# Entry
Amino acid sequence: MSSRDVRTVYLGQYTHEHAETIAGELERAGIVWWYKAPGYLSQIWEHGVRLFVDRERLQEAKVIAEAVLAPPGRSEEGPEGLA
# Structure
């Protein structure tokens, strides 16, 4: 990681399982990230883990998150498998 000042932005809120998978893919891509899990009391109204990523790589992170959340067998060409 470089010594530049990294600023993070909100990527989204995900289940614990999806957040772990997305985080692994972000690490493989070299994207700086962090998370905020709900606390003991706030888990009553907050469901899931919020992920934040390097703002300069937000678009790339969104693509990664969408790929993780895509249904199995979904084609790369588009949502319905059409080019």
In short: The longest helix spans residues 16-28. Residues 78-83 have pLDDT under 50 and may be disordered.
